[in-house]
């Protein structure tokens, strides 16, 4: 048993910090700190190039495809430090979702064609899983891909395709066969979003922005060798994809960042003539959330390290999703609370990313806070709704 | 970083689990609770035989040198079985005080007797008007007299105060230049001039009020002088809190297991309760809380191992706060999911709930530990070294 950072871990942390100090400019840090959804497109594109040049763009991939071979703890340190330095958040769809699937299930040709450009950010990926009639019950999806002499023809509609408007490639779950057990007929296919017949329509969301899309697929022709693995194995690939999200779904890095943001806001906002941070009622709420986040970090470490447990690790992973998403919501609520009445101002994307104008009535920690609270109402819904996670926990932990 | 147990640690956990499964039935616990002591001396002798009484004591002091991990493994198993013997009070808490590097007088001899199972000491620190041991302002006094000390005062809700063989009593003594400080004394159960008023506690143990009326103590009764006493006390309390958290976690695991079984067997509306999603989701929520409680315990263990004082205090208090909240939820909902049988005295789930209520009230409640865990609050909560 070893519960502490080794000298090598500490040296690694110093290396990451030095790299971040050198490469994250104050302007970029400011725009990253302001939680607009989606994040600043130019910043994240540039940041991915910087990371790719350093060899750190996709740390978790196998080494031969550009990964780093880091330990779990090093991944943890890296993510934590990136967040604390306000480095731009990378697009996760390529790096964290489809990348590992291609590394594991792709043909040598697919790997060579798709992975390098995903690593550099040249390919920006859209995820097409949910449909109007297939949300939590994903296996009931209806989008089809039919094979003819020239390749696949895809027809259907996808929903909640996050950042689809910025994507030039997509990975879609499609039905390639009608089977008795619905998930047996599902395959994963990748396609060029510029293909004829692909229509992307952004959806205005309650955060006042267009963070997600619906995608219409009308007689879209896709090359034969764009299917990942054998037809009918898409469900396994989707499960694999989600299992890679095991610990990142807690997003404790964001939560640690939010704690810092709340402290900063509460240090300048005042109540009855003193900083909000010194108000006992507010301070207790913040103290309780600090304990929760710091504790959840240890839950994450336990799952990462596959700590011995009387319960299946997948149940513990669902715990991370449930509690992690709840905490994210509570943190954004407390941040909004800290701002007081000025939290009601709705910032557009342009206003949020604009340079601070020095208006003393609107300090620079204001933009992005309320937007974040609105956006994060979705965090208990996407990636497996909280209620689905509870079903999983009850089944895996107790056989219920 | 890894959380794997060594072979020795695994064996310790397995033997404790087996002992609890075979020996610690609810019937036996209820029998013991009906006795005067609130614990079983027979069982205490068995614990000595298992080596558990020597577990956290350093090897130089004749113990087994177990750390916070070993203590947590043992206590989780004992918590599962609602074991009321004073392992935390005597072995962890008093053991830490007696083996402190600046302990003196009878400390060494008492420690040897504790390890052998012959002495069962308990801490007598809290007084009326005080809510927790960390901040307790001690009014009890000890005055240096010819050949020793004279001690007066009243100690309140002393856990195992009736069944202990020795009390480790905090008392204010005069230091140089009219200042006073808190020191720790050993007092034999048989000392003349002590009135003991024993009370039942809700978890089946016994508490006592101890009235010391100018009792005489020999010179070697002084175990820890002012200064070292406060530091030793803060550390010993933290170790005891960690052990209590582990026992609480054992209760939570036990409640989840028995409740899941109950949902599978109890039939209503023609189907097992396990078919009702409102109930299975409640179980999932209990699991989330329990996993968080376990993570809080590990954070605290890591902090104790790292021996960084401020982080130790914060992590221990964070664990106490979080485990109390999680434990009350889990055991309370355990009762709820059982329905009527859950509130009966002959069913274990209610006893686990009472164990958690007792946990929350012991060694500082949730409100106190939330304050102590956070750097937001300027006041510092370590007892003044004075």
Quick synopsis:
The complex is a heterodimer of chains A (400) and B (386). Chain A contains 13 helices and ten strands. Chain A has 400 residues and is α+β, with helices and mostly antiparallel strands.
Biggest chain-to-chain interface with counts:
A-B, 44 and 42 residues
Number of helices of chain A: 13
Q: Could you spell the SSE succession of chain B in H and E letters?
A: HHHHHHEEEEEEEEHEEHHHH
CATH architecture heading of the largest domain in chain B:
Up-down Bundle
The appropriate CATH architecture of the largest domain in chain A is: Up-down Bundle
**Helix and strand pattern of chain A:** HHHHHHEEEEEEEEHHEEHHHHH
Low-confidence stretches of chain A: none
Structure description:
The complex is a heterodimer of chains A (400) and B (386). Chain A is of the alpha+beta class. Helix content of chain A is 46%, strand content 14%. Chain A folds into three domains: 7-90, no CATH class; 125-232, Butyryl-CoA Dehydrogenase, subunit A, domain 2 (Beta Barrel), CATH 2.40.110.10; 245-398, Butyryl-CoA Dehydrogenase, subunit A, domain 3 (Up-down Bundle). In chain A, the strands form three sheets. Chain A has a four-stranded mixed beta sheet with strand order 1-4-5-8. In chain A, α1 (7-23) runs parallel beside α4. Chain B has three domains: 7-119, Acyl-CoA dehydrogenase/oxidase, N-terminal domain (Butyryl-Coa Dehydrogenase, subunit A, domain 1, Orthogonal Bundle), CATH 1.10.540.10; 122-224, Beta Barrel (Butyryl-CoA Dehydrogenase, subunit A, domain 2); 229-373, Butyryl-CoA Dehydrogenase, subunit A, domain 3. Helices cover 49% and strands 17% of the residues of chain B. Chain B has a four-stranded mixed beta sheet. In chain B, α9 runs antiparallel to α11. The radius of gyration of chain B is 21 Å and the shape is globular. Chain B starts with 6 loop residues before the first helix and ends in a 13-residue tail after the last helix. The A-B interface holds A 1-5, 72-73, 277, 283-284, 286-288, 290-292, 294-299, 301-302, 305, 307-308, 310-311, 315-316, 319, 322-323, 387, 389-391, 393-394, 397-400 and B 1-6, 9, 69, 253, 256, 260, 263-264, 274, 277, 280-281, 283-285, 287-288, 291-292, 294-296, 298-299, 301-302, 305-306, 318, 321-322, 370-371, 373-374, 376-377.
